[in-house]
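Office hours follow-up: a student asked to see two folded examples consecutively, so here they are.
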Amino acid sequence: ASSLLDAALKLAPTLARARYYKALILRGQGRMGEAADLLATISGEYPRDREVQRQLGQTLYSLGRISEARTAFEALLGIDPNDHGAYQFLSPIYSSLGREREAESAHALYLLWRDDPIADVVAERFFKAHPEWAEERIGAHTHAFNSRPRPTLTGRFASPDR
């Protein structure tokens, strides 16, 4: 992949997507400083790109450049205030800076926004009990005129065990 990206970058050296993936490859090769520099450049060009900010923050954190990592993660939250990964990193960063109240808040927000580790288990029980709702697990789907009617389930009737 690295040689293909190098070839693409020879043809179009400013292509942001190719430079982004090149940075990820550099990081995978242990060339963290180069990856961070490249991600920082892309971040300057596309400051509202969540994934660039996330990868920049993680790379800087791995390098021990904590202050810069904090800035990247805070910028990420400026784009997506519900990004659980940013809070996960910011909690120990704030703690290391003696900002305990902010560390606790970041940790609480991480727990709030992260994926619930048992949600799939609960959902599986519900959809097994109510197969007429199973297609709702599919992110993109349509309801045709001939779709089976589904009752609205509330209270104890919505329990996964019923």
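And the second, which I mentioned at the end of office hours:
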Amino acid sequence: MNGIPIILPDTLQSRSDEFSGYLGKAIERVQKFALEYGWEKHTEKSFMDKVMIFDSKPDFDKMLLELCEMPPDIELPETYCGALEERVLAVVTPEIYSTVYPQGVEDDFYTKILAHEIAHRLHIRILDGDEEAMGPIWFFEGFALFAADQFCQSKQTLTKDEIIDILKSEDRGSYEKYAFIFRYLVKLLPLKELVSKAGENNFINFII
């Protein structure tokens, strides 16, 4: 459908059309998001050369470490289930994801996982390849969560003080909370302004 090869293990070969459908909808989701904000030129070229689906979390971890040229003995978090590196979109099956990260299961959750990883690459293209300008963890993850429309039905709420604590933290935290904060900020300020300022040293103070 989209011309991007999807590499599947033998156990998943019968689900080829299913995964092709997920990928097509994920690409379409990111394209619509980009069009809404005037970033459509950044989606004209494909973000990946192939997609690899894994029916084993250890196999996924091994491939990802190889792609990133990292030591093979590094232990990745159990909830780390997808990435787009070196133009390869690697992701575990919906079944594995729903087991290790059940709080992330929602309508179209698997399509959204793929869209999330593609959205990171869109973010980098918007910034002309400057990954350092993507901002703090909560912001660049929030951008991808927002673009993919993840946690759109979440009942999460945060006080102002709780938001500020998260903004100031350098540790990786709750994606559901990041999604809440990002949607909250986009209601207050234009997304393009937030994206352009996220890499500045005074970004957190600007937000507060």
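Two things to take away from it. The mean pLDDT is 96. Residues 50 and 57 are 19 Å apart (CA to CA).
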